[in-house]
């Protein structure tokens, strides 16, 4: 008899296992594998039969492993659904999946929930012999086989650093795992670039002070706009737009520079990139 099951974890975080549907996506399924390889697991999961989620508030998603093993991928809160007409199919889906959008099933609105975030990609369960039953009740006893510890992430270097808002948040929220990143980013001043990937508009900023670049970027994670006027207005009009922000570094600067010297270099980049005339800098 298993000492610990997945249902125990659900209860530990305050979820009723009876309200959670367990879904195991199999890499032996060609349609899913194509979506998996294109990074479209979420989009694939949203597409189900009408009534698929009746009686359930959450879906816990697993990816098949060796034999009957399955690794936890994500927990989603289930929202309303619409008919899966052809115009609903997400852009970029493999053709094998697009052809399934015939208005006969449903496309669900799913919101990722962070209650089990620490287990994503780390927790492995034994799905059991009935692997053909790819969706089951959360009350089903699924023994926990292993839980991998966090591995410290190696810093990728300043030159190649390009991060989405969510990736930057992951780094800032996990100082132990990203210890090398925190050390590197806090050790320098910098001129950085934020791009709204929705419109291509650019914002040039500068980082100086005791916290270095890490401290300045932390402000964007905490406020979502870094207290910049045009960014604040953008997020006021489009509350989720900050997820489209991309962060990169234009120039690394030594901490021996004064604030005025850093700002002078920042001003040159604003002129080069025309970020005041066509971007998100307002001065």
Query: What integer value in Å does the Rg equal?
Result: 23 Å
List low-confidence stretches: none
Kindly, what is the distance between the CA atoms of the first and last residues, rounded to a whole number of angstroms? 66 Å
Oligomer: single chain
**Share in helix:** 25-40%
For the sheet with most strands, the description reads: 8 strands, mixed
Order of helices and strands: HEHHEEEHEEEEEHHEEHHEH
Tell me, rounded to a whole number, the average pLDDT: 93
Number of strands: 12
Structural class: alpha+beta
Name the beta content range.
Answer: 25-35%
| Discrete helix count | 9
The shape is globular
Provide structural commentary.
- The protein has helices spanning 6-12, 30-37, 41-46, 95-98, 165-173, 179-186, 212-223, 229-237, 259-273, and strands at 20-25, 47-48, 58-64, 69-83, 106-113, 123-126, 135-137, 144-147, 162-164, 189-196, 202-207, 245-253.
- With 283 residues, the protein is an alpha+beta fold.
- The strands form two sheets. Strands 1, 2, 3, 4, 5, 6, 7 and 8 form an eight-stranded mixed beta sheet that branches. A four-stranded antiparallel beta sheet has the order 9-12-10-11.
- The radius of gyration is 23 Å and the shape is globular.
- The longest helix has 15 residues, at 259-273.
In short:
This protein is of the alpha+beta class.
List keywords for this structure.
283 residues; alpha+beta; 8-stranded mixed sheet; 4-stranded antiparallel sheet
List the helices and strands and how they pair.
Blueprint: H1 6-12, E1 20-25, H2 30-37, H3 41-46, E2 47-48, E3 58-64, E4 69-83, H4 95-98, E5 106-113, E6 123-126, E7 135-137, E8 144-147, E9 162-164, H5 165-173, H6 179-186, E10 189-196, E11 202-207, H7 212-223, H8 229-237, E12 245-253, H9 259-273
Parallel strand pairs: 1-3
Antiparallel strand pairs: 1-7, 2-5, 3-4, 4-5, 4-6, 6-8, 9-12, 10-11, 10-12
